[in-house]
Amino acid sequence: MISDIINYIYPRNIKCIICKNPISKNNSYSLCKDCFNKLNFINKGCLICGKPLTDFYKNDICLNCETNEYVFTRALSCIEYDDNIHKLIYSLKYGAKTYLSYNIAEIMNDKLQYENINVDYIIPVPLHKKRLRKRGYNQSLLIANQLSKINKKEVLDIVVRSKNTDFLSKLSKKERIKKLQNVFTLSKNENRIYKKDLLIVDDIFTTGTTTNEISKNLLNSGASKIYVITFATGKNIY
Ligand SMILES: [Zn+2]
Ligand SMILES: [Zn+2]
User: Fold this and answer.
1) How many domains are there within the chain?
2) pTM of the model
3) Which structural domain, as residue segments, surrounds residue 45?
């Protein structure tokens, strides 16, 4: 696998993955102490969408989710989106720094353990084949594969993005829902997911439209519960 080769070329825990300063081999997630302390790990997230809740917010569910239509059981995000996270995800997606998928998977695995989430299979969010050809790899699949190495759950790369949906990030939630209708299909009649709990893996949770659409497909094919884990998410904007 290409990520194995790159990991061999780029030994872990020598430089901080954010500021590139040298670090001790024992540091968590290949981060220096300063960068680690600057990251906003999400301790209290909405029990449905996983977006951060402020400490003084009394409910377990955010205002958005009180009226939402998510079909997944629960989405979790590890860290609040900020400039450092933007740079990390950008260099994973567009800078070919595929070794970052390992550190991201490590953080995700710790989050899943902390929240006691157990699943049968891992499902990466797919790229459209045109975009996959251009980028050369699907970052969600890389993260899923690394997570699988850590938690020993099998990756089922069974979701297909049959339409290319560019510029999704500029659309509102309503527009996204419209655009993403019937975009995803399952690659084959995957009876392995029948009555199984699944974990969808992606880099960022924005409106949750993509993972919700994929969840609908998986549930229609008989999956039991769907969980979502993403590396980062932004705050809710009201
Ligand atoms: Zn650093
Ligand atoms: Zn929520």
Assistant:
1) 1
2) 0.91
3) 40-233
